[in-house]
Amino acid sequence: MALVIGKGIGPPAACKRKNDERGNSGRYRAVIGCGEEISGTAMYSSFMSERECHMRIRPYIESRDFASVETWIEDEKIHALWCADLIPYPVTKENFHAFLEKNALEWTDSAYVATEKSGELIGFFCYSVNAGEDAGFLKLVIVDRNKRGSGYGKEMLKLALQYAFEITGVKTVRLNVFDENAAAKHVYEKAGFREDSIDRNVFSFKGELWSRCHMTAAKRGPEGSDKT
Distance between CA atoms of 207 and 137, rounded to whole angstroms? Predict the structure, then answer.
């Protein structure tokens, strides 16, 4: 499952502003998980699975996390599925962090990792907020190669969506995935994403043409229906 910012970058500015408006004096706790508190707001965990209660997300730390993330990109095809070759192959610490820095400046991306409570890394993703559209965007999502197909990706995405909806206050979260990446697309669907549209044959990899799917997850209302 190829589901990947910068040097320990924290929450998006929109999130900080929202916390300030709630009277939390800008306090922010970067760890999100079962029963955690973030800026004085309790995270509801009643809907979480047992595994999800043992998973947390925190900001990516360049000096300690890159060595793990690097090993998850095991070949050229996984690399292309993951980043559409926007980062040169093979990934190095220099080209990876140059790309993350660029996206942080251009799109206000922040990077996060998912960990077991023991601290073991499970996955990585980038997240940004488009305040004008009240929407979040996930990018460069990837899970430890040894944990793919075991439900970790779905649980990480659920935590990412919880963070997006409850902390940054967006109404929808979007992502793109190549249609070729059927395993990742299936995981996204299980986590609550639905396909909106598809751009046909927009990416070339070793003579193959891949299509790009645009997917969206909407915040759920109190009765389980999508909020509009």
Answer: 29
Closest CA to 112 of 125, 99, 122: 125
Can you say whether residue 25 is alpha, beta or left, with left for phi > 0 and alpha for psi between -120 and 50 degrees? left
Residue-wise pLDDT for 124-161, tens only, equals 999 999 999 999 999 999 999 999 999 999 999 999 99
- What are the phi and psi torsion angles at 36 (to 5°)? -75, 160
Task: Return the CATH superfamily for domain 13-171.
Answer: Gcn5-related N-acetyltransferase (GNAT) (3.40.630.30)
Q: How far apart are CA 110 and CA 101, in angstroms?
A: 9
The larger pLDDT score, comparing residue 32 to residue 173, is at 173
Residue 76 to residue 87: CA distance in whole angstroms: 11
Identity at 64, one-letter amino acid code: R
Distances (CA, A) of 1 to 12, 77, 101, 114, 155: 26, 11, 25, 15, 13
- pLDDT at residue number 196: 98
pLDDT tens per residue across span 179-208: 999 999 999 999 999 999 999 999 999 999
The pTM score is: 0.79
State the virtual CA torsion across 217, 220, 226, 228 in degrees, nearest 10. Answer: -90
| Strand bridging mode 32-33 / 55-59 | antiparallel
